[in-house]
TrEMBL record, chain A:
<protein>
    <submittedName>
        <fullName>Glutamate synthase (NADPH) GltB2 subunit</fullName>
    </submittedName>
</protein>
<comment type="similarity">
    <text>Belongs to the glutamate synthase family.</text>
</comment>
<dbReference type="GO" id="GO:0006537">
    <property type="term" value="P:glutamate biosynthetic process"/>
</dbReference>
<dbReference type="GO" id="GO:0015930">
    <property type="term" value="F:glutamate synthase activity"/>
</dbReference>
<dbReference type="InterPro" id="IPR013785">
    <property type="entry name" value="Aldolase_TIM"/>
</dbReference>
<dbReference type="InterPro" id="IPR002932">
    <property type="entry name" value="Glu_synthdom"/>
</dbReference>
<feature type="domain" description="Glutamate synthase">
    <location>
        <begin position="197"/>
        <end position="367"/>
    </location>
</feature>
<dbReference type="Pfam" id="PF01645">
    <property type="entry name" value="Glu_synthase"/>
</dbReference>
UniProtKB/TrEMBL annotation, chain B:
<feature type="domain" description="Aminoacyl-transfer RNA synthetases class-II family profile">
    <location>
        <begin position="30"/>
        <end position="330"/>
    </location>
</feature>
<keyword id="KW-0067">ATP-binding</keyword>
<keyword id="KW-0547">Nucleotide-binding</keyword>
<feature type="region of interest" description="Disordered">
    <location>
        <begin position="1"/>
        <end position="20"/>
    </location>
</feature>
<keyword id="KW-0436">Ligase</keyword>
<dbReference type="InterPro" id="IPR004364">
    <property type="entry name" value="Aa-tRNA-synt_II"/>
</dbReference>
<dbReference type="GO" id="GO:0006421">
    <property type="term" value="P:asparaginyl-tRNA aminoacylation"/>
</dbReference>
<dbReference type="Pfam" id="PF00152">
    <property type="entry name" value="tRNA-synt_2"/>
</dbReference>
<keyword id="KW-0030">Aminoacyl-tRNA synthetase</keyword>
Amino acid sequence: MTALQTSRFPEAEVRDRARRGAAAVFPDVAGYGRTLYGSEPAERSDDVLDAMRLVPPVFMPQRLEKLVELAREPLYPDVDLRTTVGGFAAPLPVYLSAFGSTQVASADLGVAASRQAGALGIPMVIGENVVSAGGYRSSGGAQRSLLDRVAAYAEALPAGLGGLAVQQSTEDADCEVWNLVYSDPAAQPLLDTGRLAFELKTGQGAKPGLGGMTVLDGSAAARVEDLYAIDPVFGPGAGRVLRSSSPGTFTDEILRQQIRFMRNNFPRARVWVKLHPGRDVREAATVAWEAGADAVTVDGAEGGTGWAPTSFLHQVGLPLGECLRRIGHHSGCLLVSGRIWEGARAAKCLALGARAVGLGRAGLLAVDEDPDAGLLRMVDCLALELRLLISALGKYAPGALDAEDVWSAATVRPEGALRVG
Amino acid sequence: MTECTGAGVPAGFPASPREHLSSPVTRTVLRVQHRILDAAREYLRGEGFTELLPPLLGPVTDPGGRGSKPIDVDYYGHRYKLMTSAILYKQASLLAFDRIFYVAPNVRMEPPETATTGRHLVEFHQIDVELAGAGRDDATRIAEGLVRHAVRRVVDELPGELEELGRDVGAFTELLTAPFGHRTHADAVAELHGMGHAQSPDAEIDWRAEVKLSGKASRPFFVEDYPKGSRGFYDREDPDRPGTLQNFDLVAPEGYGELCSGSERESAYDRIVTRMRETGENPAKYGWYLQLARDGIPASAGFGLGLERFTRYVAGLDAVWQANAYPKLPGVKSP
């Protein structure tokens, strides 16, 4: 465990799950038989998803179908969590989000997280600027290069499961990250088994409209000043400067053609597109799916592992729940992230149209708590909760969830039908 | 120990330069290639072209496509590239002459999977042609004339070599006597769908599909009007048909596939920047080229004819590496 900290995130709960695994899904078992449990008055939350409840019905026709199939009453272990995530087979509707090149993720945590994600067989995204910040190949003892993460993930990955999505930002395009990976013998086993994707990044939840930001010391900044904006915002004597990536310029035509160009240039790789929580998220997702994206990832404004201006953290971008409401019904593969760490929030996202949810900060904290098994245990918790919740709704697959399964006082409902060809 | 190692080494690939260079087949093929080059220069000179020597290094190069990667070199502390193609310099060269050509060496790190296509080399050469103030039809006319003239000279002057290589000169009858065919990308896609091949309408014709189309043809043909998103930013988008590029490939018959790619070029600065974004490029790294475009470059059209691929077709070879003295296959460690 390191000194990794979060703000506005249930860090203690995540670390508890990373330590104790499935037992942490329940109240402390030591209190069993002595404590009266029950709902506490709801705390006020300005989070659209937190304000929702999952609402099991009394009548459950899909449970009857399952009963007929099994010839016995179904139980929560009968929920089949397997799904496909952006063209990859996944054991549950969960993937590991990109951590990017920020200091918190660039040490050995990135490799440890990759190893555990591989062992779980869940898809994983490798973030932007890993190559420009940590290099493509390791040059010494430190394991922080892109290939280190690829190798750690691929070595632990079970046959037939998972897949790796490699992001590329505008600056990464200068390093030709996708070309490097696509032509590297180390990536061929993933390509040969259809388990490599490239993710086009248009933005991120923590600072929609801005590019990636990191804080560098003076000598590191000097090395990258050709590529990034370097700003001495912390003062002349601070010894540290702000490094900003370009967010890149997108119009509907630029997004459409970039996706087509990716499909043309990397025909053996899946194409993912990451959107920031923009007010036109529905239009952008539609353009991406229609241009052939295998997945659209939306990072809600509450997401993000990295450095961002305070004003952006608190006041910029749509919350994930509103993104889901705006996107509404669709037939594409929608992946979402934004303060996901436990099953109920994940199930609400799935009910509102997501195919899978991404673990960002939670994944990083779990690995930080235990580099060998923290993420394994936390995902165990998530799987157990999803099975409990989905079966309680009278359903037995994540794809069966829909908007009728959630309720809020604000009666949030998806918008009208959206057809994607 | 062999000197050429790698997972994708195809059968017959020489184990050493000695084996390759002393092979009678290699010598014959290189004599054919020499004659092709001589004929190309003769033809282009006759059409008013000036031969320039191309640059090898630059801060940027053609970003390429289909997963190939430029090779970076350290240039006094700056990251420079070996030329994947000299397209940007071809446009710049028109500031000196209206009609130019290079015999240009190109280097592309192709994906290892292409080692066995018979059509990909890491190092190869192009006869690179550019014409100021020209349209696509001007470029295809020059490409057709060049190919026909070179084949005519090889057939007339090197019958013994072709016989040695087992190449039936009857295969060139239509090429030498009839105009090359023209079809649109959309028609090619429809034909492929009719053959049961799942070709994306938004992408380049894939290699297997190209071999199928090529195998059905008895003379070379042009495929025109590729969709935007399948080609680089320099292929001009038709202003009257947004999404369609005024470009072409020249495909050889008998299954030999693509010999040449070309297009009218984008020459307006704002169009170039926009198209760069559409192909995922960071305009910042194209500084010198964009300054040139901002100050004005001539409208033009041109093409690059792959020398080894052309030689392979003329000589009737199994693989393109046979037409290169020092072949480097993708993913294969070679001297």
